[in-house]
Amino acid sequence: MLEVTALPLAELRERSSEKWREYPADVLPLFVAETDFPLAPAISTALHRAVESGDTGYVASRTPLASAYAAFARRRFGWSVDPARMRSTADVSMGIVEILRRVTQPGERVVVTPPVYPPFYDLVSEAGAEVQRVPLRDTGTAWELDLDGIRAAFEDGATSILLCNPHNPTGTVHSRDSLVALAEIADEFGAAVVSDEIHAPLVQPGTPFTPFLDAGDAAERVGYAVVSASKAFNLAGLKCALMVTAADATTAVVRGLPIEVEWRTGQFGLLAAVAAFSEESDEWLDGLLRTLDQNRVLLEDLLAARLPEAQYRIPDAGYLAWIDLSGLGWGENPARRILKEAKVALHFGPAFGDEGRGHVRLNFGTSPEIITEAVERIAALVAR
Ligand SMILES: Cc1ncc(COP(=O)(O)O)c(C=O)c1O
């Protein structure tokens, strides 16, 4: 079993990415979705080789990326997807915007399901559309899609939905039944479903994951998936994502995008993604999932012991924890006080939508020491 362990703090502080440069060195950064692990060996090898041979030109028009993803999807999700129905672009955000531009008319409404990854609001407006909020339903023990609310939004004229599967920030893996039902509702109204599946490689074993396009015939007809290796393998700066479809009409939409959308794919991103999706990286990804599993449980234990006011449900996927701190009485945006006084940077809950008041999002894609230190610092602030 390969053990995937986060780098020591001193080494992480040498990094120059957003996570390590946004705040001064006395702040522990657990905000943006970057992880603190070394690269998977196959990715390091591919990137070193490219650097050594100066292989830094444009991405080729024929690459192994689509077939590498198809093989990955089959191995990891049991999903058969046709490499001929995929196109690459720079990142998931760009894929979402370009698809939304094509499937909506200016001013049309796109459903989003808050609390949700904050840029979703901006991506919808960048595409010229407007946001219609249909919050996730909180059952008391989990979150789920509000299918009645989504149906009502379509009845009221919304023409598409931007789905987050698995969901950021709650880490919810939507059930197969809910995705099948969503697809059928969308199909009934001729609405498009754009499914952001960037966190899919990070679904924990034991939780069944359904790629949206694999949720029945209606899903194939209405769906577009945007996928990437970038969250699981920490490749966000390298710029590579895939737009995936499963029916002729949706494939034609993606094929109809300007060639420039594909030219924006990063060469390093593509080389790294091919290595990430290869069988050679499976053991590393399994090791990462084990580490994240330990971290999500460690966080629960720490919060129970040191911050009992915090409400936290263990996520099914990913390395993001959605924590309700309203019990502390620190107002709508507790992350502000935590940053200023405890020197821990968390993502601001209200940025995810009104449902995020009193919440923070904590990135546990790091070492047990850093997670422990972060919770200790916040607990010390409570004790003051
Ligand atoms: C759900 C979700 N979508 C998209 C992104 C951003 O992806 P990209 O950098 O490929 O645009 C993130 C980043 O954290 C995310 O969590």
TrEMBL record:
Keywords: Lyase, Pyridoxal phosphate
Keyword Lyase on entry: yes
Any GO molecular function: lyase activity
Domain Aminotransferase class I/classII large positions: 65-378
Cofactor: pyridoxal 5'-phosphate
EC number in record: 4.4.1.13
Entry-linked InterPro entries: Aminotransferase_I/II_large (IPR004839), Class-II_PLP-Dep_Aminotrans (IPR051798), PyrdxlP-dep_Trfase (IPR015424), PyrdxlP-dep_Trfase_major (IPR015421), PyrdxlP-dep_Trfase_small (IPR015422)
Top-rank EC class of the record's enzyme: lyase
Pfam families (alphabetical): Aminotran_1_2 (PF00155)
Domain of life assignment: Bacteria
Similarity annotation: Belongs to the class-II pyridoxal-phosphate-dependent aminotransferase family. MalY/PatB cystathionine beta-lyase subfamily.
Name of the featured protein: cysteine-S-conjugate beta-lyase
Protein's organism: Microbacterium phyllosphaerae
